[in-house]
Amino acid sequence: MRTAETFVEKPRTLAELQAEIASGRTKATDLATGYYDRIAAVNPRLNVYLSLTKERALEQAARVDLAAARGDKLGPLAGIPVGIKDVLVMKGAPATAGSKILEGYRPPYDATAVQKLEAAGAVLLGKLNCDEFAMGSSNENSAYGPVRNPVDTERVPGGSSGGSAAAVAANMAVATLGTDTGGSIRQPASFCGVVGVLPTYGRVSRYGLIAFASSLDRVGPLAANVRDAATILGVIAGHDPRDATSSPAPVPDYASESDKGAERLRIGVPAEYFAEGLDPEVRSAIEQGIAALEAAGCTVKPVSLPHTKYAVPVYYLVATAEASANLARFDGVRYGYRSPDSDTLSAMYSHSRDEGFGAEVKRRILLGTYALSAGYYDAYYLKAQQVRRLLAEEYLRAFAEVDAIVTPTAPTAAFKLGEKTGDPLAMYLADIYTVTASLAGICGVTVPCGKTAAGLPVGMQVLAAHLNESTAFRVARAVEAAKV
Ligand code: GLN
Q1: 132 CA to middle of ligand 1, Å?
Q2: Which of 37, 100, 247, 366 has the maximum number of C-beta atoms within 10 A of its C-beta?
Q3: CATH class (in words) of the domain with range 20-258
Q4: Strands 457-464 and 404-408, how do they pair?
Q5: Is the CB of residue 188 below 6 angstroms from any atom belonging to ligand 1?
Q6: pLDDT tens digits, one per residue of 270-295
Q7: % the chain with pLDDT above 90
Q8: Which atom of ligand 1 is the closest one to the Cα of 159?
Q9: Cα–Cα dist 232/239, whole Å
Q10: How confident is the model at residue 429 (pLDDT cuts 50, 70, 90)?
């Protein structure tokens, strides 16, 4: 049997790099150059970066080195190389959202999360591959080719933030930003063996995010360990007057909150997440993780989330309906691609959209337009919103009894490239454990928790109530420390 080709390499931790850069032992410029060398060496195989922002990165690194040499106070991410999912805009850099329809588009401004990272000293390396408009669970819907999983290049990295997860796993960035609408940070993080954070809805500004489904979209970090992810969330979180949905709640120091330990925390385990369809190896890894939490002093008890079974259909109604509205703006006039040969305006619209959008995006626009159309709205969209409320209330009731809920992040480990592309429904079921938290607006963290016999990473999803990221981080740290 052929052994799998692998590119796994752990990045250095933030704490180590911070100390080295502050003392001048490591130059931010050398660190950035080193990362660009690594990217040049492995990107042709993994297809993680769609474009690099080298000039901007090296200017920022030089600023950090100058500040360190002067003994100035450095920002919390000074000199740290970070990658950005290509649905978040950076001024003057290509922003494709993984779609042909945005080919050639260069936005004139920075997303708020991007701006905040840079203000904290981060060095932004480039834009990361993803499923087209963040629609997908395998990164196979990117118009620029799939990302390969660094653990095993025959397998998908998950999606839609596949590039963001693979970049961290293969040490092509110390950390990255992804987005999560129905699982797009958590599922790829779990498939690639890294940490991913779903912040509470509204915790991180979406200004400068190319919208998919606005009542669900969130921006969050991926990193090699929980504390680093917590540090980055602390930098990007907070109110933004440019995003009316952003929360005014103060931002805790997530990194030091995560140091508090998990002792005496009450952990809920929902039976609905351990039912049919769960891979036995994933189940056993998560059960070991739960045992490790008990050993760390948590109390574990069952909780019930009976509406879970409706979550996938509800999600695919709400998300497609909102996508059909958000994607109406791509018309061949305002951004990117325009079909070259059309006689009339309406032919130009329809040819541009037909040639610019991929099959999955078209499928979603059709489904969403149907669900919103007169006569069907009440039966589909409205009904889905009602069930969504029931799901959210169910979580609220559970969080009255427990501090966190743990589940597998995905029902299987990373699957093979091409394995599910012919069957959209099988692909949608990859999101079965992640869409509920998306619909409810609550927060969570996925943390590596064991491996399958073939050496594929398994992720444990730790969910917590709205704005209670600190608790999710504490539990995830305990799982991480147990080295399941
Ligand atoms: N896989 C899910 C979908 O295809 C989730 C995507 C996401 O979170 N952006 O919609």
Answers
A1: 10
A2: 247
A3: alpha beta
A4: antiparallel
A5: no
A6: 999 999 899 999 999 999 999 999 99
A7: 96
A8: 1
A9: 16
A10: confident
List the residue whose alpha carbon is closest to atom 4 of ligand 1.
136
Percentage with pLDDT > 70 across the chain: 99
Q: Is the distance from the beta carbon of residue 157 to the nearest atom of ligand 1 less than 6 Å?
A: no
Cα dihedral: 307, 363, 93, 155 (round 10): 70
- Rounded distance from Cα 177 to ligand 1 centre (Å): 15
Which tokens is 28 given? 């931010």
Question: Contact 473/445 with Cβ under 8 angstroms?
Answer: yes
Give the mean model confidence (pLDDT) for residues 134-151: 98
Closest CA to 456 of 154, 147, 162: 154
Task: List active site positions.
Answer: 85, 160, 184
**Which residues in the chain are classed under CATH 3.90.1300.10?**
20-258, 266-306+387-482
Residue range 266-306+387-482, CATH number = 3.90.1300.10
Q: Which protein residue's CA is at the shortest distance from atom 10 of ligand 1? A: 135
Mean pLDDT of the region 217-246: 98
3-state secondary structure at position 181: coil
Report whether residue 181 contacts ligand 1, using a CB cutoff of 6 Å: yes
Q: Is the CB of 136 under 6 A from ligand 1?
A: yes
